[in-house]
Write a structure and sequence with these properties.
The chain is α+β, with helices and mostly antiparallel strands and 91 residues long. The chain is 14% helix and 32% strand. It has a domain of 60 residues. The protein contains 3 helices and 6 strands. It has a 4-stranded antiparallel β-sheet. The chain has a two-stranded antiparallel sheet with strand order 2-3.
Length: 91
């Protein structure tokens, strides 16, 4: 398991484990054309453009440590206002 190689306590769905999950709509993913949904967005905080590819309807929801961070195409209240994960530093 890649998580074990890097010494991370992640990568399993079990009671007490960190619950990081992305729920994807497989029907929407089947017809996705990546080149049609790619765009550049200016990020004021970084002072430059960032390439993003966020097709509508494919990502249903994102959970970080069991907290809903993204749902129904929008960031949720906890994202940016609550510590959900942790920064990992290179060894």
């Amino acid at each position: 398991e890649p998580a074990e190689i890097f010494g991370l306590d992640v990568g399993s769905l079990e009671i007490g484990a960190q619950a990081d999950m992305v729920l994807i709509n497989p029907d929407a993913l089947d017809g996705w054309q990546p080149d049609q949904t790619r765009k550049l967005e200016y990020r004021e905080i970084f002072g430059h453009e960032q390439m993003v590819n966020r097709p509508e309807g494919i990502v249903d929801s994102v959970y970080i440590n069991g907290v809903v961070a993204w749902k129904d195409g929008a960031a949720q209240a906890a994202l940016g206002h609550q510590t959900l994960g942790r920064a990992l530093r290179a060894a």
